């Protein structure tokens, strides 16, 4: 099974790839392959079995092509698309029960450009694939911010076209408690949005909250995890497996 971790910058993609991998190896005694698809990172907490940085890095592109950091990130996304067949062919050679894929820090270069959907589609031909959308409680300090964060998860599902589940990472932090309480109580969530007095934007935030609620009916509720403490990793494992038991390959 291929599991792709997607999320906003700093949400914990690399940490969760690492801690979930260790958990799978120790608790489930399965073989785990680790994949780094972030050409901009300088460090990964896990030892990658495949690393996009063997082809190119954002730093090299800046030097070689005289680009600024954003230009180099966009160029890296174009190159990743060009290399997609090669990447997927290399991944198909790695023997493992679970292949955990860490994706670029800036999710827009993976999800909103062609790269992510192309790689997801190629992997889908090889085997089962799930995208795990990671919520960062730090980016959902208000109810309206949470509605925006939820809409990004919906957009990811639409863009990647593979089964997508959502987790709330950093659930060891106090901010996570508020987020979970809003997610579990839709009426309270909506009341909070109205309390925030956003004027005309309240209606948009309410519509986004409704959209997310509708979406979660198909994908299950958001599971609280912590890459730091290991909380909820057993549930993440169950959900990844349930995706295929319940709906088969979508
Ligand atoms: N408290 C807490 N901190 C976490 C958790 N997961 C990640 N972090 C911290 O969040 C920061 C970002 O974690 P990363 O794993 O590098 O996140 P990322 O999404 O891979 O980041 P980029 O690739 O740079 O976008 C680090 O300081 C981590 O230690 C968690 O479960 N709890
Ligand atoms: Mg990372």
Q: What structural keywords apply?
A:
250 residues; alpha/beta; Rossmann fold; seven-stranded parallel beta sheet; binds guanosine-5'-triphosphate; binds magnesium ion
What does this structure look like?
There is one protein chain. By secondary structure, the chain is an alpha/beta fold. It has a single domain, classed as P-loop containing nucleotide triphosphate hydrolases (Rossmann fold, 3-Layer(aba) Sandwich), CATH 3.40.50.300. Helix content is 56%, strand content 13%. The protein has 11 helices and 7 strands. It has a 7-stranded parallel sheet, with helices on both faces. Strand 5, helix 7 and strand 6 form a beta-alpha-beta unit. It is globular, with a radius of gyration of 18 Å. Bound molecules: guanosine-5'-triphosphate (GTP) and magnesium ion. Guanosine-5'-triphosphate binds next to helix 1.
- Mean of pLDDT: 91
> How many DSSP helices?
11
For this structure, the CATH topology is Rossmann fold
Radius of gyration from the CA trace?
18 Å
Please trace the helix and strand order, writing H or E for each element: EHEEHHHEHHEHEHHHEH
Indicate the low-confidence ranges by residue numbers: none
Per the principal axes of the C-alpha atoms, what is the gross shape?
globular
CATH class: Alpha Beta
CATH-scheme architecture = 3-Layer(aba) Sandwich
Question: How are the secondary structure elements laid out?
Answer:
Blueprint (H helix, E strand, L loop, with lengths): L1 E6 L5 H16 L3 E5 L13 E2 L6 H8 L3 H14 L1 H10 L4 E5 L4 H6 L2 H12 L2 E7 L7 H18 L3 E5 L5 H11 L1 H10 L5 H19 L3 E2 L8 H15 L3
Parallel strand pairs: 1-4, 1-5, 2-3, 2-4, 5-6, 6-7
Bound molecules: guanosine-5'-triphosphate and magnesium ion.
Guanosine-5'-triphosphate binds next to α1.
